[in-house]
Design a protein that fits this description.
This protein is 42% helix and 22% strand. It has helices at residues 13-27, 62-70, 72-75, 100-103, 108-116, 135-140, 144-149, 158-180, and strands spanning 2-8, 32-36, 46-56, 59-60, 80-85, 120-124, 127-128, 153-154.
């Protein structure tokens, strides 16, 4: 069977992470498909799930939140991992010395940990290409403080993403293989 890497992405950075996770899983011998959560289809055909979303203002995108809530019953019956993307820039700690990836965890992770018992949750740095922004977001970047909070660039750590996906593949081999024998 196959792992679903479902995602919600506003400007494509999270889609890129999901596609990389699916490619890494597949290369590690665990077939995977990256799909937008709105176009997943029948979830029963998947034996495991990696679900991710971009986070804005501390929350996952609506379609990802709804996908998890609507499919909660099925998601609890199989291995699940959750990821989020969003923080921008190169700073790994904030002004108070806290880990940026920890403080950027979307608020839904607490709810989903309780409801789904995912095997792991992870936050990855995102990317911002101003040329892809909608008018309202482009306008917001005109404010100097917003440019500091929303720096331009690709801050995704592909080695970290690959390592996480490889760990998922290893765990899936341990979890799913005994069920096949």
């Amino acid at each position: 069977m196959t792992t679903l890497v479902g995602y919600a992405s506003r400007y494509g950075a999270t889609r890129g992470i999901a596609e990389r996770i699916a490619d890494t899983l597949t290369s590690a011998g665990r077939p995977a498909q990256a799909r937008p959560v709105q176009a997943v289809g029948d979830l029963v055909r998947y034996d495991s799930y990696v679900i991710g979303s971009a986070a804005y203002m501390g929350s996952w995108l609506r379609e990802a939140r709804e996908f998890v809530r609507i499919n909660q019953r099925l998601l609890t019956t199989r291995p699940v991992w959750l990821f989020s993307s969003g923080p921008l820039g190169t700073a790994t700690t904030d002004a108070k010395g806290r880990d940026v990836l920890v403080t950027s965890e979307p608020k839904e992770f607490a709810e989903f940990r309780e409801a789904l018992s995912p095997r792991a949750t992870r936050v990855f740095f995102g990317a911002l290409n101003p040329g892809k922004l909608r008018f309202s977001h482009r306008a917001a970047r005109l404010i100097p403080a917003a440019r500091v909070l929303m720096p331009e660039g690709d801050f995704r750590n592909w080695a970290d993403i690959d390592a996480w996906a490889t760990s998922i593949a290893s765990e899936l081999t341990g979890v799913l293989e005994p069920a096949l024998t």
